[in-house]
Automatic annotation (TrEMBL):
Belongs to the isocitrate and isopropylmalate dehydrogenases family. It comes from Sebaldella termitidis (strain ATCC 33386 / NCTC 11300). This is Isocitrate dehydrogenase (NAD(+)). One of its GO terms (molecular function) is isocitrate dehydrogenase (NAD+) activity. Keywords: Oxidoreductase.
Amino acid sequence: MRKVTLIPGDGIGPEISKSVTDIFEAAGVEVEFEIENAGEKVYNETGELIPESLYKSIEKNKVALKGPITTPIGKGFRSINVYLRKKYDLYSNIRPIKTLPGIKTRYENIDLVIFRENTEGLYIGEEKFENEEQTSAIAIKRITKKGSFRIIKAAFEYAKANNLNKVTVVHKANILKITDGLFLDTAREIAKDYPGITVEEVIIDNMCMQLVMNPEKYQVIVTMNLYGDILSDLCAGLVGGLGLAPGANIGEDIAVFEAVHGSAPDIAGQNKANPLALLFTSIDMLKYLKENEKAEQIEKAVLRILEKGEVLTADLGGSATTEELTAEIIKNL
Ligand code: NAD
């Protein structure tokens, strides 16, 4: 049985994680979850934000499924999520965005993937006040050739493997000539090795407009950390919202799968959360583990339910609880 670390997380995390484990069990998936937690809840219980056993489990299993984590303010970590991505050098944040059957949205036929650089950019956490009065502050954005190369290469390799013929590189090199310029130049260099793939360079502000006007024009988008973070929420909104948007953080030998959304404190503990973002995330995890048959079985069950549109959670306009939707998926397996 393949072991995978499961980090249920905070807020709605435990509810949606239970949904996934129940569905995996019902489908007979050959995965054994090793449960380790981190975040606010663990801190309140043990005084530790990330217990040592969690690191050990991830390092042993190499694959983790993670719920959203709330980082308590002023407890030594800027963000536990960002910390884990950095610690394990999970440089590719991959966020697929796809139109789903039965989900009412403004657009049809969206099928794109965002490759967001996950370890540098403005998220390195180097910011400070410049004067005693604290009326002026700066943040450092670090872009390296190595960091840019590996994420852009991953995006091109994905396009090639999936027979896609366009990669869109998103930047602001007209203003940030050195940092974004380095990212863009690296993309131009890599593009030479992929003659069959058209490279499109789009400035981030224009990209936002293009995505709300013609999102179906895009296939693979690759960009730096902050732009990727913002674009992925924007794109999640195009296909039905955060309750449906999966994601993965992938490094050289460790992968942590997590949905785009956060801990949703406004609906936590109310049996209202949509478990599908984490379920789609876990389906992608199964594909990564080459458990394609089970991945497809679960995916088909979910798509059937969405098509019918009878059992949906509140974020999708329905009235089903997390548990009712979970039971319906199990019935449809
Ligand atoms: P959020 O994603 O938690 O919530 C935004 C809105 O979307 C809320 O109205 C919420 O109810 C709704 N929503 C999110 N997921 C949903 C789901 N599965 N089903 C139904 N509705 C859903 O964003 P936020 O409120 O900005 O952040 C809350 C906390 O989560 C913060 O502490 C933040 O730091 C943390 N966070 C963690 C991660 C992560 O663990 N990777 C990511 C983003 C935010």
